[in-house]
Amino acid sequence: MMLEDHLGDIVRKARTSAGVASETVAQAAGLTLDELAALEQSGVVVKLPNYAAFASLIDLDASKLERIAAGWLPAPVGFSLFRQFRVITTAGDDMTVNAYLVWDEVTREAALFDTGFDIGPVVTLVEENGLILRHLFITHSHEDHIAAITPLRELFPKITLHSNMKSAPADQRNLANDTILLGRLRITNRETPGHCEDGVTYIVENFPEGTPSIAIVGDCIFAGSMGRPNQSVELLKQKVREQIFTLHKSTLVCPGHGPLTTLDEQLEVNPFF
Hints:
The protein is α/β, with parallel strands linked by helices and 273 residues long. Helices cover 30% and strands 22% of the residues.
């Protein structure tokens, strides 16, 4: 298991978002420019930087950053609890992306969150589990998350779409405080722009036997990092704090890339917060 962002990715993302020059960060860290560039490129610590001195310059928590540098990884997810939930990871354009499938164990009604690059695994899961695919929820409109939307809709023409895309027909747009029922499961949405203007997080609740809720967050937050703030780093952090960090600490956080984590873990180790 690898994090979506290694130490160097986190440092570079934070530095560019904060608008701080490489020279300033390198000097504070006790590194040469070449050493900082190598760290940002590889994530490998060859010469120990002064984390406390440079992290504050780029709005990172130094102690949390050191935990990432020491090799922190999220605890494995106990999927025996999440029997009606699957992670679907597909590859394309030199990257991998996560989509998620949930269903009600009684009605067999299912919902897909993002499509990834390939609908093949989705079709297999639907057929193997005798599911009725009712809904497609889009976390944001970046191509890797919706690449397979056309073949998916051709294969499942009755599927209902949900997104925050301004270009979507009115009946396919998320409504504030709306609740979609999937058998006994409840799906709600929370706006989380910052990485993308139409970014949205979906909360799936009421799994059987006290199983924790899940938050499908797109690219607004990763295990130990966050998405690129294409709109505004302040907006992205604000929305994560307001809409995700206010959930129950046991919530399973399901990002668009990289491993799954829990909210409790991210409160403890994510250096951006």
